[in-house]
Amino acid sequence: MSLLKKAVAECFGTMVLVLVACGVAVVGAGANWWVATSLAFGLVIVAMAYSIGNVSGCHINPAVSFAMFLRKKITLKEFLVYVAAQIVGAFVGSLLLALFLRGNFEALGGNEIQAVLMHEGKLDALSYIGAFLVEVVLTFVFVIAILGVTDERYHDGKHAGIVIGLTLALVHLFGLGFTGTSVNPARSLAPAVLQAIAGKTASLEQVWIWILAPLAGAALAVLVYNLLTSNKKEAE
After folding, report:
1. In b/e form, how buried is each residue of 42-69, taking b as 16+ CB within 10 angstroms?
2. Where are the alpha helices (DSSP H) in 17-32?
3. How confident is the model at residue 118 (pLDDT cuts 50, 70, 90)?
4. What is the model's pTM?
5. Residue 106: DSSP 8-state
6. How far apart are CA 226 and CA 38, in angstroms?
7. Disulfide check for 211: which of 109, 129, 185, 221 has CB 3.0–4.6 Å away?
8. Which range of residues forms the domain containing residue 37?
């Protein structure tokens, strides 16, 4: 499969993720909002995994691509192209969502540190540390599940999309109350930039968390997975 086709697939998949899942997060309300948002992110992954998985692997997340690069499943060139395509797709998805919202750029699903991590309603050092650690742990759980279910040594990958989608829904159920759940730099960057255009800058000011923490969590997942699955015979 050509790299161009893989890039187009990654762009399309990320666009759908941001448009649909962030769209549910933005327009949803009521007691079921939490569950609906979590399911939306998970179900988009399931749909895209069985749509573009055979083309690009359906990373649609720079953290996942980073993990696959560290695992030597993709080259540096592929990693850079994947990330670029994912970012473009995220911006397209955010712009479409803003269009559907009649040009409202103020609420596009950008991540922000939530009240539970604040001290008396204000951000302090522990707020940022807590948000960073939450994102590292959530991304770690998400990526290590991906590594396990896509490891051809143990699985055929037929049910990978379902497992990965359910895992993403799981981490959203926990993380929404802390950070809004990013675990995906592209998914967070695009809404943050576009929301800042409308004057809502909190997500952009905190975007370093939504970029660095998922990458750190992905790297940690690769390290731990390699340690857990390595053995002397394979090392030799």
Report:
1. bbbbbbbbeebbebbbbbbbbbbbbbbb
2. 23-27
3. very high
4. 0.94
5. S
6. 29
7. 185
8. 3-235
The span from the CA of 128 to the CA of 104, in Å, is 28
From CA 155, how far away is CA 79, in angstroms rounded?
24
Task: Please compute Rg for the chain using Cα positions.
Answer: 17
> What is the CB neighbour count within 10 angstroms for residue 121?
6
Distance CA 220, CA 201 (A): 30
Measure the CA dihedral 124/129/130/134, to 10°: 150
Distance, CA of 166 to CA of 154 (rounded, Å) = 19
Residue 55: which CATH number? 1.20.1080.10
In three state form, how does the secondary structure of 36-65 look? HHHHHHHHHHHHHHHHHHHHHCCCCCHHHH
Our count of domains for the chain comes to: 1
CB atoms within 10 A of CB 191: 31
